[in-house]
Design brief:
Order of helices and strands: HEHEEHEEEEEHEHHEEEHHEEHEHEHEHH
Distance between the termini: 42 Å
CATH topology of the largest domain: Rossmann fold
Number of strands: 17
Mean pLDDT: 94
Number of domains: 3
Bound molecules: guanosine-5'-diphosphate, manganese (II) ion
Amino acid sequence: MNLHEYQAKDLLRAAGLPMQPGEVASSAAEAEAIARRAGGPVVVKAQVHAGGRGKAGGVKLAATPADARAAAGAILGMSIKGLTVERVLVADATEIAEEAYVGIIMDRASKAPVVMVSAAGGMEIETVAATTPERVRRLAVDPRYGLLPYEAADLAWFLYPDAARARAATEILRRLYDAFVACGASLVELNPLVTRPDRTLVAVDAKMVIDENALARHPEIAALRDEQAEDPSETAARRANLTFVKLDGTVGCVVNGAGLAMATMDLVKFYGGEPANFLDIGGSSNPEKVVQALQIITADPRVRVILFNIFGGITRTDDVANGIVQALAAHPLTVPLVIRLTGTNDVEAVAILAAHGLSAMTEMDAAVRKAVALATTPVAA
Ligand code: GDP
Ligand code: MN
């Protein structure tokens, strides 16, 4: 789950990190009032789940409350990378001498949290790593021990040549690592971590992604979810307890089990198609889940065909068949349906489908080929 900058800053401030102070506003008048209270220059910042807001015009310095109002007026409602700005953060403007990068990601290759630091902050770390890799230091942390004091100090001295900042950065790294673990984050970034003219450090931007599987332990973080900023189909799927990831293709996939869902997507691609989604309806026997899955998939106008691939183990294929029949009765499909099912109660399932004029295949390979052929057939004019 993505957090907004203001939410990440609040969490990290509570964890003892030096964060630029600020308040969130959803109207220009509110932004002006916050700026007036701040009593000095502010920076008005679009709160969307995207980086590169500065370049997109979503970060504006404002010298006076009136300027803050104008900046908020310009930024609110703006579209950044396809996301509409509903709120702005009005933060005390920071005087910047230098910008560094500090981040921690859960790295699958290292099977560990990896801390990354660079004195070349303010730009995307991927760009720095690609063009000047010697300016980035990475350290995989052994999760059994956490980030050890000497490791934090070593990274801090890579960032800063002077003892005062190296000491401050050591503390920042240790607290950031602790916050990363405590919050169940998969990513946390301070970019830029700013050096002020007086050589003190403050984080001017913060990004945090929380592992969905950690949210059950953190209701206070789960409550920060901004559904308006998420894809509506993913919200609907989460509410229906479906594991769903939206993709860009045309073959809608309804599969039981994550492994079979992955294999189905691989096979769709192998035969020249593009999956419209990853969807695991899980192992439960519940026709209602199938109804909801079909509603979510058919809401995507790009979907040209729907492919069911069900291997009945714990999942009873007759439940799936009933779900398909119920869903079609409520919302007739406008795209073709290809059903492959085999396993528990498949004789009953085929009979249920047949009674409603539907048929099922038993071979996955043939079903996927058929679905891809239907998806890639030109639409009749
Ligand atoms: P991003 O573009 O989405 O990463 O948003 P950032 O919050 O990182 O802002 C982008 C850039 O705007 C920063 O790298 C800074 O150079 C500049 N900026 C942001 N806040 C301030 C501020 O308080 N004072 C000054 N002088 N510049 C700022
Ligand atoms: Mn940034």
